[in-house]
Design brief:
Length: 389
Amino acid sequence: MYQVKTYNAIAQAGLDTFTTNYQLNQSDQPDAYLIRSVDLHQQTLPKSLKVIARAGAGVNNVPLTAATENGTAVFNTPGSNANAVKELVIALLVIASRNLMAAANYSAEHTEADVSQRTEHDKTKFNGTELLGKTLAVIGLGHVGSLVANAALNLGMNVIGYDPYLSADAAWNIAKQVQRASSIEMAVKHADYVTVHVPKNEDTLNLLGTPELAAMQPNVQLFNYSRGGIVDNAAVLDAITTGQVAHYYTDFGEPRLANQTAVTVTPHIGGSTIEAEVNGATQAAQTIMTYLETGNVQAAINLPNLTVPFNAAYRFTVMHQNVPNMVSQITQKLAAANLNIATMANAAKHETAYTIIDVDDLDHDSSQQLIDALNQIPAVYRVRLLIHH
């Protein structure tokens, strides 16, 4: 029986995904965490914890180094809220182009008897533009960015994309009509609208700052529905003052953005739909079960991709440092236990490596001794023994 501890409000559909081999919130020594926004940085991760799955895109709330050293795999649910974010960005593109917020505020303030005549006279103040034929620059063409780019094409916009890390698989999701730029500056040079959709890391912090804003044409409309810190807010406010940026829409507020007429802050609702919460919770639950039952890894944050069909009777998984001679040390321990390896695979991601070894015959009495021997290798984080049911 596997034990899962949940944090935050997890969609019931996700909880219902777990089979009867899983118990929820019944143990202080869980095998898995299923989380959303809880901050784990100040917590001590239990040694029993083998996997953390976040029902969402980012993992800024997870201490990745501590998790790795604890032998805990960390996953998120990429793409689970992508459609939700896409739809909000497209809605805001329409709102921005038609001055809908200013028009609605005007109507709310003018309710007097002659409102019909007055609004007929004043409505030209809110004349907008059409998106048809306008240019949108999309910075980051992953799960969200590709959807935004394709949807904008369907609205008749010209779309220019920039993503230096675009994978071959991701490229298949992007319509061929999306133009590819070689730099951010080239992507935004002629854009009427610029939207950013990249993960937050050291390379993307303040990705759009003063130089990038200066490369845009005057009166550009800017959108950040990626992460706080991707756009340099101080630089944006300066660009608004000079007229370089006409309006800034973001899901990530801070005090300096408050009460700015040319800034619209939404309360971090980009991925907040009922469907996205269900998608994230369901995907996270499935990820937990796959990892705990098979040891296979796909799209983990701190482990390499490694998927091996589980056809043998037993499987050892070893999470360890990516240092020389590890495979040799592991196989020597199995040879000393007189075990014949049926299948073996190894992969690495940065400083962490992962090894899967399948065996057909195993003496149950000596299996724990072998696990202990493998755990004694200094660079090993965690050893697991899985039985094929």
